[in-house]
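Please check these two lines:
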Amino acid sequence: MKKILIPLVALFGCYTVISVLAQSQSQQQSQPTAPAYQPGSASIDEQGIRGYRLGPGDILDVRIWGQSDLNSMVEIDEDGNVSSLPFIEDPIPAKCRTEKEVQKSVTDAYAKYLVKPRVSVRIAERKSRQPATIWGAVHMSQRVPMIRRIQLHEMVAVAGGFTDTAGGTIQIIHTIPELCPEPGEVATQKTAQGSDVGQLQSYKISALRLGGGDGDPFVRPGDIVYVTQGDLVFVTGLVNQPQSVIIRDQMTLTGAIARAGGPTRLAQKKERCNPPALRYCRCR
């Protein structure tokens, strides 16, 4: 009897171990793993997108009603023309024009072969504008698709707003010439003379918060927007809350001391700061 029980106990023990291991593996597989952070492209609303001006790389869906064999998906070439339509030999200018303007030109081109052609031109893909990038003292660094004209405050909103470490300045660098300048604007030249490509332009956060005007410029495709980090001032000595304070736009010495809780009763009405930069401040 004992000889029979020993193999049964051993078999039961092996079964128990296998069951525990199987449950452990299933639990490990069922536990969700935290996804790695991957910065993605932000989305922007499409208000005002009807005025989108075409450029090289954009793809158009061209349809001729009643002539399905003439329907085609065409890409605007590097010269800014539609040059691959069936039976149309002459290229049709498309750069810096709207889809409705191109539709009128395509209709006129097919009118030479068809009686009162009904043509539809729609934008299938917008690929002519590089995204703009915003980073620095914002909550989420983003690459923003430039499907329409976007102002600086919209870029900041897409990035989640300013962080507590933001200074008082936003810097913008244009990396490529503007494709289709708006009426009244001077086109950016590709030559070094008279070009603003690569130049650093600075804007005050305080002016941006006021809204409108020069403090809230339009951001161009390919622009790099950097929100500067504020420098630190160390306020020590006879203050109620000695601490480091971030320098922001138009901050005064009195304001820095106030952020440290103000002077204590024992403090004299003197402040000492090391020149030339406001890096260290001590009340005594």
Q: What stands out?
A: The chain has three domains: 49-125, 132-229, 232-283. The first helix runs from residue 2 to 30.
